[in-house]
Amino acid sequence: MSLVDRTRTVLDHAIEVYRGTPHGARLAATRDRLDQPLRVAVAGRVKAGKSTLLNALVGERLAPTDAGECTRIVTWYQDGHTYQVRARVGRQERQLRFAREDGQLDIDLGGLRAEEVDELVVTWPAQALRSVTLVDTPGIGSLSESAARRTWDLLVPDEEETPADAVLYLMRHLHAGDVEFLRAFHDAEVSRPSPVNAIGVLSRADEIAVGRLDSMASARRVATRLGENPDVRRLVQSVVPVAGLLAETAVTLTEEEVGQLRRIADLAPREAEELLLSADRFVQTRPELGLTALERESLLARFGVFGVRLTSTMLRRSAASTATDLARELAERSGLNQLQDLLTSLFFERRDVLKCRSALLAVADVVRVWARPGSEVLAGEVEAVVSSAHPFNELRVLSGLRAGWVSGKDEVVADLERVIGGAGAAPHQRLRLPPDAGRVDLTTAASDALARWQRRAENPLTNYELSVAARVAVRSCEGMLADLSSERSDVRTRH
Question: Do 225 and 278 lie in a common domain?
Answer without folding.
Answer: no
